[in-house]
Amino acid sequence: MCGVVGIIGPEEAAKEVFLGLFTLQHRGQDAAGILSYSDGEGPGFHLYKENGLVEAVFNEEIVNRLPGRMAVGHTRYSTVGRSDNTRDIQPLVLNYPYGIGMAHNGNLVNYYELVEKLRRERSRMPLTNNDLEVLENLFADALLEQGAGNEKKLRFDQIQNAVNKVMHEATGGYSVVAMVAGQGMFAFRDPKGIRPLILGRRETMVKDATGALVKKDAYCVTSESILLSFLGYEIVGDLKAGELVFIDNDGNMERKVLPNAKVGTPCMFEWVYFAGAESVLEERPVYNARLALGKGLGRKVRPLIESGEMKPDIVVPVPETSRIAAIAMAEELNLPYREVLIKNRYIQRSFILNTPEKRAKAVDLKLNPVKSEIEGKNVLLVDDSIVRGTTSKRLVDLVRRAGAKEVYFVSTCSPIRHPCYYGVDFPSPEELIATGRDEPQIAQALNADKVIYLDQEAIREAIGLPSMCMACLDGKYPTDVSAGLAFREKRKGQRTL
Fold it and tell me: Tens of pLDDT along 97-115?
């Protein structure tokens, strides 16, 4: 899972992208990059990207070297390739036709098939292990087939045809933001709308040819609405599944849902874990969804408390994502809510770290228990999900060492038993603690007295969308995953190291 943003219109687009990337840092912490385009002094693309958090990668001097009224930014969460390989950091650039800069969030299921196709049919040798390079080459080839490289002005119908061909060939979940040198910016979602993308607009003041300041519309396309709010953009709306938007250099916008579009199935994990609590996706506030998840979990646990099977004294959230659900659950059960796992805010989100060793160490460094509030009590731990179990077991052990009598571990997500092919880093069933285990067996593996999961139907009710991708829970994938086995095995060998 990554964060993407594209901005066109303001005098210093890269500065806005830089500030906006801070609001998307939770979506990827391996690397960050910004690409700008200027057609004035020093014309062309200007790129800076490096491994690390946004604040470590960029400073004022670097951002000042990224001029222009158009820029694309990215925060990276690695699922393929080495996390420390700078070649794989986005945005990526092609020099022809026109010059294309691109960033995306997601994964291609048939990535390896497409790489071989590019080598065999186009004699192209990929320079990275990033599936965005495949998308970018497919798009460029589709433009060239229409003769676009021979024309000074790129037309919207040419972009439509090219993106539609990309959608036809590229299977997976992806949201793309891109810019074409001297032409404008475009963005699109995959045909099933698995990965989020939202459009915003605001007025800005820019200099015209005479140097006078004039009002002009600026546009922003990004992964989450939190970025739009932070930068003062009014929400226009989510891009629909299979939708394309193009904004030219004069600020003219065109939108179209392309023929390959299907019924949208956004990833439910956005509301459960990934998205910022302040964001609104598909017109569903993330905060409200997490409250509803917590209430639903409370309703499931209540009969167990009434029967005496569980006797929790306090409800404790696992920082940060589960805090909202834990508050709602405590209210539902009329139990004291206590934040007794104190977070070191400078440690990364442990789930998206790329090895079990790093995740385990992060838990030890990240959380410190308040023993005086835990000792002698039965603790009900609330987390957003249980994926590999590495973090969950460490948490249970941490609370037990602090003196808890009993530890119950509850999750606002159902058991994750199937791999994700769309951009979340659990590619193999063998890595998932719920594979081949029921709840008592999972509890035993975690050293918990009881493990409770929220039911799938309760998740659907809490988020409130008619259709979502819940393939990691039910194995029902919204796209063809026939290439998934090869993808999974190769990714295990090439995944982040």
Answer: 999 999 999 999 999 999 9
Q: Would you state the structure tokens that stand for residue 469, as one six-digit string?
A: 């991708």
- How many angstroms separate the CA atoms of 439 and 449, rounded? 11
Q: pTM for the full model?
A: 0.93
Give ∠ CA 175-387-270 in degrees, rounded to 5. 30
- Residue 68 phi, psi dihedral angles, 5° rounding: 120, 165
State which amino acid sits at residue 25: Q
Looking at domain 3-265, which of 3.60.20.10, 3.40.50.970, 1.20.1380.10, 3.40.50.12280 is its CATH number? 3.60.20.10
Provide the residue ranges of all domains of the chain, joining segments of one domain with +: 3-265, 284-475
Fold adopted by 284-475 = Rossmann fold (3.40.50)
Closest CA to 206 of 248, 247, 250, 245: 250
pLDDT of res. 78 = 76
Here the tokens at position 195 are: 């990965």
- Rg of the chain over Cα atoms, rounded to whole angstroms, equals 23
Give me the pLDDT at residue 365, please. 75
Q: Would you say residue 475 has pLDDT above 50?
A: yes
For the purposes of burial, counting CB atoms within 10 Å of the CB of 372, is it exposed (0-12), middle (13-18) or buried (19 or more)? exposed
Q: What is the pLDDT of residue 492?
A: 62
User: What are the beta bridge partners of residue 68?
Assistant: 12
Residue 369: both structure tokens together? 């228990």
* Rounded-to-integer distance, Cα 31 and Cα 28, Å: 7
3-state secondary structure 395-419: HHHHHHHCCCCEEEEEECCCCCCCC
pLDDT tens readout for residues 350-398: 544 555 666 566 666 789 999 999 999 999 999 999 999 999 999 999 9
Residues with catalytic roles: 2
Q: Answer whether the bond into residue 278 is a cis peptide, omega within 30°.
A: no
Q: What is the pLDDT of residue 496?
A: 41
